[in-house]
Amino acid sequence: TDPSLIRNFCIIAHIDHGKSTLADRMLQSTGVVSSRDMKAQYLDRMDIERERGITIKSQAVRMPWEVDGVTYALNMIDTPGHVDFTYEVSRSLAACEGAILLVDAAQGIEAQTLANLYLAIESDLNIIPVLNKIDLPNAQPEKYALELANLIGCEVEDVLKVSGKTGEGVEDLLDEVIKQLPAPKGVADAPARAMIFDSVYDTYRGVVTYVRVVDGMLRPRERIQMMSTGTTHELLEIGVSAPNPVPSKGLGVGEVGYLITGVKDVRQSKVGDTITNSIKPATESLGGYEDPKPMVFSGLYPMDGSDYPALRDALDKLQLNDAALVYEPETSVALGFGFRVGFLGLLHLEITRERLEAEFNLDLISTAPNVVYEVMREDKVMITVTNPSEFPEGKILEVHEPLVSATILAPAEFIGSVMELCQGRRGTLRGMDYLSEERVEMRYTLPLAEIVFDFFDHLKSRTRGYASLDWKADGQQIADLVKVDILLQGEQVDAFSAITHRDKAYAYGVMMTGKLRELIPRQQFEVPIQAAIGSRIIARESIRAIRKDVLAKCYGGDISRKRKLLEKQKAGKKRMKMVGRVEVPQEAFIAALSTG
Ligand code: GDP
Ligand code: MG
């Protein structure tokens, strides 16, 4: 295809502002999917995406559209909608010349609208501002058109108004995409360079890689090379998604499509990497490549120890489709055999856990998530700590913790309350802007550890559900962090060790010891429960002794009943964990981990 007849764009929006619905409508308007075949959110393939209404994996679709008698090829690239996947979003944006900035006409601008807009601006994209859902009775298109125009610095009249639901304005929008966005530029006779913006494992076809060709051409049967690693593969098939795969004789400058090489693992075809021709390779890659970096770690254990091999197989399978997922075996006194798993963020953790449970039928327990620390030991050696158990004992020179820059949008009346929350989480205010009289954008730097757990829930409840949040990784800082251990009769219970700020160590200790006192049944002897930093005890509880004689309840005689009780007690013992001399039902540990 002649590059001047191509337009590459994506839709960026806050969650629920109607991106998937609009994308579906465009597929219908351009005739690539008939109304008969249309099912809601055609592009959101994974069940879990559909359930949660979020887009995790992006897809690209080619659609024909005619303006003034000329037929253009529109490539729509669907970006993932969640903060955990910022890097993937940035790669999808880099594959486009322009973005439709979609805003719900009844809600106005939200945090993800801004975060995505900033990313789009960083990628030098042309922005087309669009208000969606104008069919809603409570839509306020005039008000929000002004807000949007102020934000991106355009005229109010330039803000388009559509309804993905009724289809109103969608055809005009497609016309504007062609008129307003530039055609892709590239050098047709240069060595081929294509950027990978997505890579998906397919049971039948192996890994399907989505690319945007920048220079040159890629043809079937050629040998291609991944520039980050130098590995080469035979290009078995290349084509466009329309939206079903249509093989072609090659993709040239500006084109967007898929390719198949027969690799079986997405880590061999990494998002952000540049593909070139191995016979006539490009000298410079397209840039912007980053290895996926897990930000949050958690222990994952099967409830039933015999499921351990099944959990390992399930993780192996998920990893074929998820280059960001990393894991290694781990054992815990309290929980048995499991894995330490690294995730891009909390949503990634939740999604992975849900998939393991739903698709692989596993019952799992996860330990409290922690971030990655760099710790300088007394001997000046820097070590990476992804698990509290790796935190060095004894003297430590420095601990570096990861930071994020967060964008919070809230009604102005909640400014005080949001500030209070952020201060309590060791946040630093970086700036504040009014988007309108009643809505403010607050920019904070916060330790990642302070927001991975329950920050969003607190933010929502303090703002009656009106605040929105987005964040991205933003460097590190030195902080006064300590490891708090929980001891049962002097024995450390690994699953409950946590790295916290020194000022919060005491609160954690009191909370955890209190919780365990409630949950652990009494023993034949008194059991102290302590929280400690190194050898210093910071909180203490104890479980009083009882002399529990089950048989005494049987009032003599009935042998068979006594027997049953003894058997029941024996069966119960199997699920007991020994911590030193203390017998703890696994359920107690599980309960302590699962209740906030
Ligand atoms: P996404 O999270 O941005 O992909 O949003 P969806 O496309 O999943 O839409 C979120 C919700 O808004 C769904 O319940 C849609 O049916 C609804 N919705 C989307 N577009 C419109 C629209 O133009 N009008 C109305 N009334 N509802 C819409
Ligand atoms: Mg969606």
Automatic annotation (TrEMBL):
SUPFAM superfamilies cross-referenced by the UniProt entry: EF-G C-terminal domain-like, P-loop containing nucleoside triphosphate hydrolases, Translation proteins
EC number: 3.6.5.n1
Gene: lepA
HAMAP family from the UniProt entry: LepA
Cellular compartments annotated: Cell membrane
Taxonomic lineage of the native organism: Bacteria, Bacillati, Actinomycetota, Actinomycetes, Micrococcales
Keyword Signal appears in the UniProt entry: no
InterPro entries: EF-4 (IPR006297), EFG_III/V (IPR035647), EFG_V-like (IPR000640), EFTu-like_2 (IPR004161), G_TR_CS (IPR031157), LepA_C_sf (IPR038363), LepA_CTD (IPR013842), LepA_IV (IPR035654)
The protein, known as: Elongation factor 4
Species this protein is from: Glutamicibacter ardleyensis
